[in-house]
Design a protein that fits this description.
The chain has about 80 residues and is α+β, with helices and mostly antiparallel strands. It is built from three helices and two strands.
């Protein structure tokens, strides 16, 4: 049986490798690309307002990665 992995390319290969190691005929077909926002204004606004909130909820590990990649020194925010 062929398995098509539609995760973004950066994540797909790990899935494909693991499935192939288990004997599956797996291939990557990344249908979306996850990247940082093109509009830095939105990111800057979110950073400027971050300290006003008690908590910030990210919906994915990619959201956290791209938020903090450009905001290495965002202080006062605890990631739980």
């Amino acid at each position: 049986m062929k398995v098509i992995v539609t995760r973004p390319l950066a994540e797909a290969q790990n899935w494909v490798t693991q499935l192939q190691d288990k004997g599956w005929d797996a291939i990557a077909l990344p249908l979306i690309e996850i990247a940082a926002a093109n509009d830095n204004h939105v990111l800057e606004e979110a950073t400027d307002n971050a300290k006003r909130y008690t908590a910030i909820m990210f919906v994915s590990s990619n959201a956290v990665r791209y938020f903090y990649m450009k905001n290495q020194a965002v202080g006062g925010i605890n990631i739980a």
